[in-house]
Fold Peptide/nickel transport system substrate-binding protein.
Amino acid sequence: MSRHGRASATVAVILAATGLTACGSGQSGGSGDPGGQAEAGTHVSGGVFVKAISADPGHLDPLTGVSLAAREMVGYAYESLVYSTPDGKFEPWLATRWELGDKKITYTLHDGVTCSDGKPFTAQTAADNINYHADPEHATFYYGSQIHKGVSAEAEGNTLTVTTKENDPFLLANTGTIEMVCGAGLADPAKLKTTTDGTGLYALGGSTPGATYTYAKRKDYTWGPKGVTSETKGLPDSLEIRVVTDESTAANLLLSGEINAAVVLGTDRKRLDGAKLGSVGVRNPVGEMLFNERAERPTSDPLVRQALVTALDRKAIGDVVSDGSAMDSRSLVVKNPLLCVAGGPKWTLPATDLAKAGSLLDQAGWRLGAGGKREKDGKPLTVKFIYDAATGTHAPAAELVQQTWDKLGVTTKLSANDANAWSEQLFQTFDWDTGFVQIAPGGPVTVSTFFAGATPDKGGNNFMFVDNPEYEALAKKAATATPETTCDLWQQAEAALVERTDVFPLADNEQRTYLSGVELEQPNFVAPTTIRMLG
């Protein structure tokens, strides 16, 4: 599912790189193992790889696109200095190696890297990218989460040096995974909405917005991870990204072999599993609940938020919202490369207790009236619960939440959001209280851009209007801590959010991309250099 606007319902912070699997990283990288090819005879070169996406990206700009569909499309044509594998390790890509120093990192770039227009991509081009993102006036996708005003870059020959004024324990992750734009695109960013200008193995050939986007394989590509080149066996000649809004239709197309890959979340998975289709998956915070804490909303009161979640049967609702595949949340960070996830979480979730929930509402001044409904000062306790209309499990899970809160005396109004409604409610009208609203970041720094800092009316991403001093203090300390201590601090900060009920991680599941006639890696989105067509 994807959204348009400044952020998305699964508020599109699927940063392919805001982190590491553990609390530190290797200090340097060497050249990757050559090959990246499959066993002889299993892969067939050529043909068209067809992938379904559930919504149109709106535009293709890698500098400003935030929706899930937009970020997925960026990955087909743009590359980063390092490749983040599905298990969160870093391997050389545009850079052959790197070395971390005191408040700086030095990359050595591949020789002979070119853009899709044939012009060279140099260390100076990479430095221009870093400096562009570091300018707050540009308000790019990466500014504030991976790149800050105190970051700068310079080039000498094929060496890129990035420095930061303050210590950054994730300097490799934050700078190495930025998807790089070539010189022409940086000089004229407006054209990036409808064309591509990157170093990728594939370049945009044509598009029909709302329908299809096609990418052609380049013939001069030699710098892919694990030695992938244009001649690697099994690569398709072209990619077709097709907008298929109905999940059952996508499942049918997979089973017929008309498409090669699609995300399927709902009941159609049973058909695909029965047909023994392969799949790759990423963790999905499908049941994550956020809260509107603006002063005029009932959920601004921590006692109300705590009461609402204490009443919920996490297992029952988790089974419904995950379609029977619920996993306990282990972190607010769910995307590769899973920064500071290991060893967590440090939070404790409340046990289900309807009586305690009622007592909490009593303390908050919301008492049962004659009609069995909670009231305060003659006003009923009404909660607007929003969820994603395109996610099949959200509606029945929301109805179960409504039934539970009815027992508590709460009037719950359910609201199914489409793409436009998400952007409008979260960032413009603020007309919501809680619901299945998820962020899906790759690291805790990105989490902090949503739970701390400026609110949307002041140009920020804190659309929940959270004001949690304990969290902010821990996040500030963690942001400049050493690699050895930063993850413990970030996990403490997460706990400060959960235990104040600024967020309720009800249940995760696996978001699975089903495959037909193809093999590939999906660190977060499909990695085009890993696509191998099967004969």
User: Anything to note?
Assistant: The CA atoms of residues 266 and 356 lie 34 Å apart. The chain has 14 helices and 26 strands.
